[in-house]
Design a protein that fits this description.
This protein is of the alpha+beta class and 306 residues long. It has helices spanning 2-30, 36-49, 51-59, 62-76, 93-99, 108-121, 132-144, 180-195, 225-234, 268-274, 278-286, and strands at residues 78-81, 84-87, 158-160, 177-179, 218-220, 254-257, 292-295, 298-304. It is built from 11 helices and 8 strands. It binds zinc ion.
């Protein structure tokens, strides 16, 4: 009698496992177009049945396939920007995570689902794979949020910031100007950064950055159209981005801030240093609150859009 009970229990358990496996297989075989919602429903159910089965089940799931693909594309995806071939999207991890509304960087488990939701929201397939179409959609999203009005600043809209705010404190006064509200917003943002113990910024007792501190200092702010032209003549091959004819710097609302490495150098190896500094990551998460938005390609360049 006792054996019979155990036997029945075993048969029932076996049936439950078979049903779970069949149901999972059915969902997986619908395959590549499976919605992330279905995926997120499947995962916890399987986890409760048997933990050791999960890894083998997941290894063949669309989620794992997408994760494997993303790991390759992150370093290898070929695309073009600013007339230059680009490789991978690893330099934009923080921006991508912020756009996908992940809580923290590098949570691989959440990435697929968050990406698929975002892809669907903007009308892409929602296949969890950050391919060229998805990257281009992210880039257009970032670019569309930048400063729209590129009218040159009027002199009465500009204030001259103290030399101590600048990465190079020997910068002459005419190169230390910024649009009034932009500068005020920068100072508010700076106060928040100084107050954040995780950044550990060296500062004075009255809440200014210490002379020895480099992070968050202004590298460049307002550039007059004449000065911008002069820069372009000096380095005609500097590329389109920094020395554009209609640079947002002539508005006084664009600030280049020190975020590490060589201050304003677009080499991938330099940007790889910059995008991994606490200062840059902090800006990606917090600058929006103060009205600043990034230029994705230049980690140091922030535009005041309010
Ligand atoms: Zn800039």
């Amino acid at each position: 009698m006792k054996y019979k009970k155990v036997h029945v229990a075993l048969v029932v358990f076996a049936l439950v496992v078979v049903a779970a496996v069949l149901s999972f297989a059915a969902r997986s075989s619908r395959g590549q177009s499976a919605t992330p919602k279905a995926g997120s429903l499947v995962k916890p159910a399987i986890l409760k049945v048997n933990r050791t089965n999960v890894s083998s089940a997941e290894a063949s799931s669309p989620f794992a396939a997408a994760a494997t693909r993303n790991a390759v594309l992150r370093d290898e995806l070929r695309w073009a920007f600013g007339g230059k071939e680009q490789r991978g999207w690893y330099l934009y991890d923080s921006l991508i995570n912020e756009t996908l509304k992940l809580q923290s960087d590098g949570e691989a488990g959440d990435f697929g689902g968050a990406l698929a939701s975002w892809q669907k929201k903007i009308g892409l397939t929602g296949d969890d794979v950050l391919d060229q179409d998805s990257l281009m959609a992210l880039v257009s999203n970032w670019q569309s949020r930048r400063l729209k009005n590129h009218s040159d600043a009027n002199p009465d809209e500009l204030v001259t910031a103290p030399a101590s705010d600048f990465y190079d404190p020997s910068r002459p006064a005419e190169l230390r100007q910024a649009e009034r509200n932009t500068y005020a917003a920068y100072k508010q943002m700076l106060a928040a950064a100084i107050a954040d113990p995780t950044l550990n910024l060296a500062h004075t007792s009255d809440g200014e950055l210490a002379p020895t501190e480099k992070y968050f200092k202004i590298v460049s702010a307002f550039r007059s159209p004449e000065y911008q032209n002069q820069l372009r003549r000096q380095s005609p091959n500097a590329g389109s981005a920094g020395l554009a004819v209609h640079s947002p710097h002539t508005t006084g609302r664009a600030l280049d801030l020190y975020v590490g490495g060589d201050p304003v150098n677009t080499k991938d190896s330099n940007r790889a240093i910059q995008v991994n500094t606490p200062a840059y990551r902090w800006l990606v998460r917090n600058a929006e609150r103060f009205g600043f938005r990034p230029y994705f390609y230049e980690p140091w360049h922030w535009e005041y859009v309010r």
